[in-house]
Design goal:
Order of helices and strands: EEEEHHHHHHH
Strand order of the largest sheet: 1-2
Helix content: 55-70%
Distance between the termini: 37 Å
Shape: elongated
Number of strands: 4
Number of helices: 7
Oligomer: single chain
Strand content: 5-15%
Structural class: mainly alpha
Radius of gyration: 21 Å
Length: 188
């Protein structure tokens, strides 16, 4: 259990916990609307955070910190048009900051925010590729791996006992599938 104000929340990370009582945690006052928005973005945020940090409890803690930061921004009159997007951006910046610290880099949060867009985009592409890779069959994975290792269509064909034309055709289909997946994702 994790204490939030006078109440408790469960820390089951597969699902964002609901508040039993109180709207303040160790990071500050919590706006109920922001906390609810955190629940809406939690699956995507948890995936991003765990991929970047490999520490599920830290990811949960960073989301609570982002919730408090956004709650504070709203309380001080900052205009937040798209709460979910703003909260997710705040969370991802905190994750990038923690990742930099874990890698032994001494940077300020403002320095991280300058490069966060590129780091976040890179992490999101890696997450998407990992997800795509899990949906490929064994032959497709093998084609991708050989291609990534720099083998030509002819070399791949010899190893897989296929014709170079077949390898070329399958790689073309796979490339088109990956291109469409990237186009349809929110990763750019």
């Amino acid at each position: 259990m994790c204490h939030v104000g006078g109440g408790r929340v469960s820390t089951l990370h597969d699902k964002w916990p609901s508040l039993e009582a109180g709207y303040q945690d160790q990071y500050g006052p919590i706006d109920p609307k922001v906390y609810q928005a955190a629940g809406a973005i939690w699956p995507k945020a948890a995936t991003f955070g765990e991929f970047a940090l490999h520490d599920r409890s830290m990811v949960f803690s960073l989301m609570l910190k982002a919730v408090a930061n956004v709650s504070s921004a709203i309380a001080t009159g900052q205009n937040v048009e798209n709460l979910n997007a703003y909260l997710l951006k705040s969370f991802k910046n905190l994750v990038v900051f923690e990742r930099a610290k874990a890698l032994g880099r001494t940077v300020s949060l403002s320095e991280v925010q300058e490069v966060a867009v590129d780091v976040i985009a890179d992490l999101e592409r890696k997450i998407l590729l990992r997800e795509i890779f899990t949906h490929l069959n064994n032959e497709q994975r093998t084609l991708v791996l050989y291609s990534m290792m720099g083998y030509s269509f002819e070399e791949i064909a010899l190893r897989l006992e296929l014709t170079p034309a077949t390898v070329r055709q399958r790689m073309h289909r796979l490339t088109e599938r990956l291109r469409k997946t990237f186009e349809n994702s929110d990763v750019r």
